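User: Is it possible to get a 3D structure for a protein together with its bound compound? The compound here is iron/sulfur cluster. I've pasted both below.
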Amino acid sequence: MPTAHRAGRPGVNRRSPGQTRCRYCSRVLSTLEHYSGDCCSRPPCRERHLQNQLEAFRNDSARQIETAEPERYAIVVIPHRVGELVPVEPDRLRALANHLVTLTAACAGQPAAPVRPDDAPGTVPAVCSSCQGACCYHGGNHAAFLDEDTISAFAAQHPDLTANQISSAYLHYVPDLHFANSCVFHTERGCNLPRTMRAAICNHYECRGLKTARELGQGSHPALFIVARHDNAIIRGEFVNGSGVLP
Ligand code: SF4
Ligand code: SF4
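Assistant: Yes, that's possible. Here is the predicted structure of the complex:
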């Protein structure tokens, strides 16, 4: 598992309400703002404050693992979610199987078609591995996002398969353990379905952090400091470069 560095508690504002000014725009803080720290609630100040916190966290983490020039590592922020691995729940499996029966009945017997070109944006695997699939929890309530387009494309790549065989092909990839309340195919190694069997949204979705990392990398492996945040708090961070996660 990658080494995680935890953020310290923010400082406490010891002045009285009505005396404190925003450290960025110098506006007098409201009582609520005062007790939340020394930054007002205007979006530009909040944005600057967050950037400062992220940079301080990165620099502090770099000192702890004796990494020079932390500014070489671009900061990307991903969501944080704690998951527990559990056996796939029978109800969830039944719902998926029923969904596949309906879809495959409508989609089997397609004329043969070539494999869809993979036009998904280039990914930065380290980012999604660090996050362990926070976005896949939405797949839990949407049958892995499997729809007629996805099953029709799979059926067209395998024109000899019957409806039952297509359903079985998908159910074959249901893992023994998945993250509780997440998509049936969501495992600790990521998605258990081959990319060509996934819904388009699964291959194309990028959260802001992943998009930033891809744009920075331009197809290569950018040096990154990946920060997981939840409820406005920094939970952990890790440095990655072309060789993987820094120990
Ligand atoms: S796209 Fe974003 S939210 Fe989804 S797994 Fe990757 S880093 Fe996590
Ligand atoms: S099918 Fe795979 S990529 Fe899509 S939501 Fe489920 S686990 Fe995530």
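The first strand starts at residue 74 and ends at 79. Residues 102 and 127 are 35 Å apart (CA to CA).
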